[in-house]
Please model this.
Amino acid sequence: MRPSSLTKYRPFPAVQLPDRSWPSRTLTQSPEWCSVDLRDGNQALPQPMSVEEKLEFFDLLVRVGFKQIEVGFPSAAETEFNFLRRLIDEGRIPDDVTVQVLVQTREHLIRRSFEAIAGAKRAIVHIYNSTSPLQRRVTFGNASREDIKRLAIEGAELVKALVPSVPETEVVLQYSPESFSDTELDFALECCNGVIDVWQPTPERKMIINLPDTVQWTTPNVHADMIEWMCRHLARRDSLLVSLHTHNDRGTGVAATELGLMAGADRVEGTLFGNGERTGNLDIVTLALNLNSHGIATGLDFSDLQSIRTVYERVTRLAVPERQPYAGELVFTAFSGSHQDAIKKGLDLRAAELEDGPAQWRVPYLTIDPQDIGRSYEAIIRINSQSGKGGVAYVLDREHGFDLPKTMHPQVGKRIYDLADRLGRELSVDEIRDAFFREFVNLTSPLDVTDYELIHHTIERGRVQCKALILLRGEELRIEGMGNGPINAFVQALEAIGMKDFKVTDYRSHAVRGGSDASAAAYVQLQHDDGRLLWGAGVDPSIEMAGLKALVSGWNLLR
Model:
C-alpha cells in the first residue's frame, strides 16, 4: 500500500477492560458447533449447489457429527425453501439434529421461514439486523439507534407470536446484531437485552445470542475483549448460549474464535475448510482439530478427512488449498533435509516407544499424527533437490521396505537429489525407488555374477567355499575361494584372480517389507585402496545371493 493511502485508515479502538480474565484461561472443552456451510458456503459459490448437492452435503455434515446445521435462507430463495421442505418431508433430519434458518427481521420473511420449518422436530430461527454505525448510516439512511433496536425487538416479538403456528416444532430463538464487530458495545448490548426481554429464556429453555465478527476490523485480542465484555453484561447470562461467527478478513478467524471461547463464548458457527463470502468464515475443521491436538473431544469426526474434502470439493466446485491446515495436500510434507531427518528420527523413536504401550504423540514438525485424520505417511516426506539425506532413506524405508544403513544415506541421497535437480521438480516415491535401483542395486557392469555355488564345510566349521562363474568386462571366468562366510569366500575368489584393490568394511541384510517373492536386501560397504568408501546393494530371493550382488554392485561403483 502506498504511504499516501494510509491516511484513509484509522486504528480500531480498544475495549476498556482492565480486569480482562480471558488471557489466563485455557480451553478445556469443546463448544457447541453449528455448520453454516449451506448458507454462507452457498452464497459464496460461483456456481450454487443444486438441491441434490445440498442434500448430499447435509448428509455429510450429519456423518461428521454436527448437531446444529443451518440449512440456509429459505425465505429468500425457492431453492433453499424446497431444500428444507425435502429434508423435513422425506424425514432426512435425524432426531438429534437441529436445523437452523436465517432470516432478516422483516415480517414477510419471518412468516415464510415458519412455513419452511413446519414439521421439523426442532428448529433454530436465527433473526438478525445490522447494528453498526456504518450500516445505520449507509444501509438504513441515518437510522437512529432506537429505530434499529426496534427492528430487533419487533422481529423477536413476531417469532414468539408465530411459535404456536408450528406446534409440532420446538423453536429456539437466535439473535445476531449483525456487524457486531463494528458496533458500539453498549448499543449491541441494548439490542441483545431487548430481544432477551421479549423471549424470556430460562436455564432450561435457552436462547442463542450470536455475536458475529461480520467483518474483521481488528486483532483477535480486541475481539476477545468484546466477547468478555458482552458476557459480563448480558441479561440472563445463565439462560443464554453466547455464539461466535467469525470471518477471516484479516486471516485470523481461527485465532479470534479461540480467544473468543476463552472469553466466555459457548458456541461456534463456521464452515468446512473456511468456505464463505470474501475471505471466508471460521474453518471448523482447523478449530476442531486444534482442540483434538490438545486432547479435547469435540464430537466431530474428521478421522477420514480426505473423503470429506472429496465431497466438499465436488459439490462446491472449490479447491482446498495445498497449505490449508490439516487438510491441504502438502501440510504433512517436509522438503527440508533437516526437517525430514528429524521426522524420520521422531517416527522411529515413537515406534520403539509403542512397543512398551501407548505413548504421547511427540514427533518434530508434526502437531498431530496424520493417520488420525486418515492421512498416510506416504505423503509426509517428498523429495526435491533441496531435500536432505534422511528424506530419501525415509521414503525407501516407509514406502518400499529398504532399511538403508545410516552411513549409506549421504551417498544415496546425493544421487537422488542430483536427479531431482536435473529434472527441476519433485520426485515421486516410485521414481525414488527406480533411481535407487538404477544407481545402487544389482549392478552388473563391468562385473557380473552369472552362477555360483556355496559349499559349507563340515570339518572346518564356519568355513565356506565359493565357486562362481563371473563376467568381467565381457570375459567369462570361473573363480573359487574359501572364507568364513559367503561374502568373505567370494572376496577371496576375486583376490585369487588379482582383484585386490578393495576390502569389505561393512555388511547388512534384512527381509524387504512387502517385497515380492520374499525378497532379501543386502548392503555391502567397500573401501578402495585410494580411501574411497562406497556402498552397493543387492536384492534377491536368496539372502546369500543378495549379499553377493551387493558386493558386486559396490565393486562396480568403485570403478
